[in-house]
Amino acid sequence: MTGLHRSSSAPTRNALPSQELLDDLCSRFVLNVPQEDLQSFERILFLIEQAHWFYEDNSVEQSSSLKSLSLREFTSLMFSSCAALRPYIAHIDDIYKDFTSYKVRVPVTGAIILDETCERCLLVKGWKAGASWSFPRGKKNKDEEDHTCAVREVLEETGFDVSKLLKMEDYIEVVIGQQRQRLYIITGVKEDTVFAPLTKKEISEISWHRIDELLPAGNDASSRAINGLKLYMVAPFLAPLKSWISSHQPLAPKLDGGVKGMCVWKAKNGSSGGMTTTEIPATRAGSETQQPADNGPGKSFRSFRFDPACIIQSMEAAFASTKL
């Protein structure tokens, strides 16, 4: 019996962005910003990160040949193509390493959303393959208040507005590594509430999960729960959450013990790509991410001189040339 070979009709995504596209992204996200955003590499890389989101969410999605790039790859291309940043390309490894170290110190806020019985909580799963679950949350913008960030991030990741339910005094705060994380406790959310992320390629699934199933099994509290879910960002909040729920003694009837976790939204083609079931174009936050107290450049930056005035001058010249 002769076997039949079926060729794949999927397009090959191996084309790098053109110089014209990179120039457009540089002009849109780096050149036309307030000068205070050009005073450090940390701030510049946050701008480049926003350009990367736009590239992945729009350019790649609209082209069948453009290659999806990691932030590291995209950063190198931007430094190579932007005249103002090109002099620093030799130091890109140190610059990127210090940026990733800096990011994990930026404060994070969000919300623990509980159902009417306080026996279920809402978790979101990241987009990438093998992503872990977490409560909806994200990094604070510059000068942004904790509760304002929580409302914004929850809305972006779930499509649900918690502003009218949030109580300033009801929160759990932990420090993981060097990062402060504050999650406000939101109660009384109906099971049939409609959830759907407002950003693309950030969340792959949203589900209600029973809190008793999230309790860790054995000594593996930092990674997995009884039902095998990855809970790296959830586990530190479980004990204080149980204590908070116990002290507030919810009066709602308990769930039937047989009711398990319930998915309320999922990307059509999983976390590997494709359109989600309810995609709504939105600009991701993060271009004004708040700086932690220790906001000086890392030691690797001290081997050469960072000159913001030179960068600003180069950017102004580049911008002027686009007007000709």
TrEMBL record:
Main location class: cytoplasm
Cofactor section: Mn(2+)
Keyword Metal-binding: yes
Subcellular location: Cytoplasm
GO biological process: deadenylation-dependent decapping of nuclear-transcribed mRNA; nuclear-transcribed mRNA catabolic process, nonsense-mediated decay
Chain spans, region Disordered: 270-299
GO cellular component, as recorded: cytoplasm
InterPro entries found in the cross-reference section: DCP2_BoxA (IPR007722), DCP2_BoxA_sf (IPR036189), Dcp2_NUDIX (IPR044099), NUDIX_hydrolase-like_dom_sf (IPR015797), NUDIX_hydrolase_CS (IPR020084), NUDIX_hydrolase_dom (IPR000086)
Domain annotation Nudix hydrolase: ranges: 104-233
Biased composition (Polar residues): 274-293
Keyword field: Cytoplasm, Hydrolase, Manganese, Metal-binding, RNA-binding
Keyword Transit peptide: no
PANTHER family assigned to the protein according to its UniProt record, in alphabetical order: M7GPPPN-MRNA HYDROLASE
Protein name: Nudix hydrolase domain-containing protein
Organism: Aristolochia fimbriata
